[in-house]
Known about the structure:
Blueprint: E1 2-14, E2 26-29, E3 32-37, H1 39-47, E4 61-64, H2 67-79, H3 83-96, E5 113-116, H4 119-129, H5 131-146, H6 152-157, H7 164-173, H8 180-185, E6 201-203, E7 206-208, E8 215-221, E9 235-253, H9 254-260, H10 265-281, H11 288-291, E10 299-305, H12 325-344, E11 349-356, H13 373-382
Antiparallel strand pairs: 1-9, 1-10, 2-3, 3-7, 4-5, 6-9, 7-9, 8-9, 10-11
Helix pairs in contact: 1-10, 2-3, 2-4, 3-4, 3-5, 4-7
Amino acid sequence: MIIELHLLQSFPVSNLNRDDIGQPKTATFGGQVRGRISSQSLKRAARLLFGRYGLDPSETGVRTKRLVERSATVLRDAHGRDYDEAVGVVSSALLALGFGLDRRRNTLTEYLLFVGNKAADLLAEYSERDWDRLAADATARAKAAERKKADAGEEKKSKVKPDKHTLEAAARILDASRVVDVALFGRMIADNKDFNVNAASQVAHAISTHAVVNEYDYYTAVDDLQPTDESGADMIGTVDFNSACYYRYANLHLDQLSINLPGDTDLVERAARAWLDAFIDAVPSGKQNSTAALTPPETFLVVVRDAGAWNLANAFLKPVADSDLMAASTRALFEHFGRLRQFYGRDGLRAVVAASVNGDPVGFEPSEIASSRAELVARALAATKP
Length: 386
């Protein structure tokens, strides 16, 4: 079973998601340049809201390279270990578990790990249990470094294939069977594919329903203590921005979510509700202090289906060109969905729920229209029940 979420959201002057030169991200679609917000940016914005919608911190995860520092702090505070020595021991623990360390800074892992919030505590417990052996390994590595033999190539060789006992410890540390955001967005660990998790949610890059041209703001700042007989700005610069109405799409495969969170139907249900609410409210944080582009979505369409999925971006293959972009985009979205539903039929569609801040959606039966966000969410989730 799949829940699909389609949103139209208009942002005023903003730079929510920047590219490598600081400009708002764009994409060419339908032969025209569109504003774009990356799926990664939207997923992070949603993840940060899970706690607001009923998930406990122990049920969510963290994406980090700083497990060494976090676990060393636990060893210091909970077990009275010397922090610097603990850093070496935890580093040895990660190497023993089959993970590499950053070549330039060995207190960081080689790449970001997506783990539960309890992972640092579990890694600290493993390090404490095998302290003597891991401390000896840390000493040996330190001596090798002093002899300038621990170069990047040797560091890679230090990653060994863990034995069964060590793999069991790694499985406990990386266990994601109750970590909702890992279950939703998946995880890939190159060093051991057994710890990979297939994502239950797919998230599209948001694109503007119309053509955009990035603009820039030329700003100046004056020193508040500047003498009155002096003039001129003490700081000048430019900030890139655009204004756009975006189409956003995401889906949630409930069967995969149940696989990723096995044996806990309550957590699956709460995760689905948190996913739906969080994605409605997800707004990236880029340049928000200087733009306050905190506008909510105005058009909603939720589809619950047994199989298949429809990204409705092709509703905007021809860019919308109208003075009322939201109204025209809403009309294009709903009409496109109506044509697809008429052509492909209604088989497998458990529920269709539409809503619009600006009035009743056109082209939907009265039973398919929600009058509020709360009703929209409630009816969508009710359709997922057996």
